[in-house]
Design brief:
The complex is a heterodimer of chains A (114) and B (114).
Chain A: E1 4-5, E2 10-14, E3 19-25, E4 32-38, E5 45-51, E6 56-59, E7 62-67, E8 72-77, E9 86-93, E10 103-104, E11 108-113
Parallel strand pairs in A: 2-11
Antiparallel strand pairs in A: 1-3, 3-8, 4-5, 4-9, 6-7, 7-8, 9-10, 9-11
Chain B: E1 5-7, E2 10-13, E3 19-24, E4 31-37, E5 44-50, E6 53-57, E7 64-68, E8 74-78, E9 87-94, E10 104-105, E11 109-113
Parallel strand pairs in B: 2-11
Antiparallel strand pairs in B: 1-3, 3-8, 4-5, 4-9, 5-6, 7-8, 9-10, 9-11
Classes of the chains: A mainly beta (114), B mainly beta (114).
Chain lengths: 114, 114
C-alpha cells in the first residue's frame, strides 16, 4: 500500500538555484510529515518536519510546505549547494492505526551541479 | 552524545538460515523501530518496540521478530531467510510515544542472502 509517493526519482539543479522536491500522500489521517536526507552508506538524517496544523515550516535553507487539501507536501532548498546532493525521503504518520508507524516515499535523488 | 548504532554493518547468509541484527538507540531514547529498505525503495516499517513490548507492526511475516532489552537496545531476528530478505535494515530511535515523534536512524545493516 503505497500511501506516500515521490513521483520524481531524480532531480538535477544548478548550484545556487532552488531545489523543489515533491511528495504526495493518500491517507487523509496523516497529520505529521518529515523529510530525511540520505547519503550512500549512511542512514537517513532528519531534516525538517511539519504538522498538519501548519502549512509552512522553515529551517535555514530548508522550507517545507503542506497542502492538506491536495495531500501534497514539498521541500524547498534555497540556495542549493553541492553538499545537498543526496537521496531525499518524505515520511508521514497519523491516525489511530498508524499512530506509531511512519510511511516513507521511494525517494528523490537530488544532484546539485557546481 | 552517541547516535543510533547498529551491528553488524554487513552480513552474508544463505537461504534458510537465521540472522540477528542489533541496535542501540540514541541516548535518552526509549523507543526503537525497525525498517527494511530494498534497493531503490524507501524504508518499509517492520515493527516498533517500547517498554520491551512490540507496540505496532507492519506487513511483515512472523519470520520477522524482535526484542527490546531493559536498556532500550533492540534486536531484529529473521528466521528461514529468503533471497528476497536481502536489503538494508535500518533501526530508528525516538523518545516516548507522541504524535510529533521524530525518529533518528542508524547507519543500517546490509544483509545479503545467497
Amino acid at each position: 500500500d503505497q500511501q506516500v509517493k515521490q513521483n520524481s526519482p531524480s532531480l538535477s539543479v544548478q548550484e545556487g538555484r532552488i531545489s523543489i522536491l515533491n511528495c504526495d500522500y493518500t491517507n487523509s489521517m496523516f497529520d505529521y510529515f518529515l523529510w530525511y536526507k540520505k547519503y550512500p552508506a549512511e542512514g537517513p538524517t532528519f531534516l525538517i518536519s511539519i504538522s498538519s496544523i501548519k502549512d509552512k515550516n522553515e529551517d535555514g535553507r530548508f522550507t517545507v510546505f503542506l497542502n492538506k487539501s491536495a495531500k501534497h507536501l514539498s521541500l524547498h532548498i534555497v540556495p542549493s549547494q553541492p553538499g545537498d546532493s543526496a537521496v531525499y525521503f518524505c515520511a508521514a504518520k497519523g491516525g489511530y492505526y498508524n499512530f506509531n508507524k511512519f510511511y516513507f516515499g521511494s525517494g528523490t535523488k537530488l544532484n546539485v551541479k557546481p | 552524545d552517541a547516535g543510533v548504532t547498529q551491528s553488524p554493518t554487513h552480513l552474508i547468509k544463505t537461504r534458510g538460515q537465521q540472522v540477528t541484527l542489533r541496535c542501540s538507540p540514541k541516548s535518552g531514547h526509549d523507543t526503537v523501530s525497525w525498517y527494511q529498505q530494498a534497493l531503490g525503495q524507501g524504508p518499509q516499517f517492520i515493527f516498533q518496540y517500547y517498554e520491551e513490548e512490540e507496540r505496532q507492526r507492519g506487513n511483515f511475516p512472523d519470520r520477522f521478530s524482535g526484542h527490546q532489552f531493559p536498556n532500550y537496545s533492540s534486536e531484529l531476528n529473521v528466521n528461514a531467510l529468503l533471497l528476497g530478505d536481502s536489503a538494508l535494515y535500518l533501526c530508528a530511535s525516538s523518545q516516548g510515544q507522541g504524535a510529533r515523534e521524530t525518529q533518528y536512524f542508524g547507519p543500517g545493516t546490509r544483509l545479503l542472502v545467497l
